[in-house]
Amino acid sequence: MEATNRTIVARMDSPVPLIPQLAAHLVAAGGKRLRPLLVLASARLCGYTPGPDGIRRHVNLAACVEFIHTATLLHDDVVDESHMRRGLASANAVFGNKASVLVGDFLFARAFQLMTDDGALRVMAILSAASATIAEGEVLQMSTQNDLSTSLERYLEVIHGKTAALFAAACRVGAVVAERPAAEEIALETYGTNLGMAFQLVDDALDYAADQARLGKTVGDDFREGKITLPVLAAYEAGDETERAFWRRVIEDSDHTEADLATALDLIDRRGAIARTLDHARRYADAACAALDVFPQSRLRRQMTDIARYTVDRDR
């Protein structure tokens, strides 16, 4: 991870001053670095070792995955008009929307440079397909916004696109660089997909159940933006007609005040919507752990299982 962080910092450099300035803001904000960690862990689990040239493909591809992720965050914060990210002012709040969009484009370009430096067509196919799926997921989310008729299946399709696809790709390229059999590739892709689904479900729950200071972003953002997430769908489905009228007003009609957030939190709690969301997340985490059964028991496999458990139990 230290080598990956050095690569990230080096590849964020540019003779255009605003780019490293905005990049430094992102690096200072930290983050879990979970996606690049998955590249490194998957490659190690598959026995990858650098070749005689000393190039550590897994390190460069871990940085590539983090650039794809960070680029999408920059664009998402502009689309969502978010003002906090990882406990700090978001990049768009500090530098403006135009700079955030353009530096996001720069990071996508850097990601594709790292892919071409790696030179493996299969790696490029996996990561470029994931990038397209992320964009599709974000557009699909936009099309479901403010729509309480959204089905659970469509909601799960959204979170697969916007989050799980990159988790899956990160894990799969680890097996690819290690030149492992297809069964191990698929197992790691399955692990990453289920881990990503659990991760996003918990993120959606935390928007209604977290301590804002620990979460690092504004609680209730999804509510204010009219995003359709499982806590809202579950509360709406279980609610009586008065409660459903409330949800239609605040979500579908976007007619709400700050006081309505407290009401929404109360209804979500009363109807057990957070518990239902976390139950879904646990099932995905269990499936992620089960996917690793093709690998022998090891310290690293246990750590990857721990990551799945942490994903569900985290509070930020």
Describe the structure.
By secondary structure, this protein is mainly alpha-helical. About 75% of the residues lie in helices and about 0% in strands. It has 16 helices and two strands. The protein has a two-stranded antiparallel sheet with strand order 1-2. The model has no long low-confidence stretch (mean pLDDT about 90). InterPro entries: Isoprenoid_synthase_dom_sf, Polyprenyl_synt, Polyprenyl_synt_CS. Pfam families: polyprenyl_synt (PF00348). It catalyses: 5 isopentenyl diphosphate + (2E,6E)-farnesyl diphosphate = all-trans-octaprenyl diphosphate + 5 diphosphate. This is Octaprenyl diphosphate synthase. Belongs to the FPP/GGPP synthase family.
Distance between the termini: 21 Å
Mean pLDDT over the full residue set: 92
What portion of residues belong to β-strands? Answer: under 5%
**Helix/strand order:** HHHHEEHHHHHHHHHHHH
Task: Give a quick account of the main beta sheet: strands, pairing sense, barrel closure.
Answer: 2 strands, antiparallel
How are strands sequenced across the largest beta sheet?
1-2
Count of individual beta strands: 2
Total helices: the number is: 16
Sequence stretches where pLDDT stays below 50 over 5 or more residues: none
Overall form: globular
The percent of residues in helical segments reads over 70%
Find the structural class using helix and strand composition. Answer: mainly alpha
Global Rg: 20 Å
Oligomeric organization of the protein chains? single chain
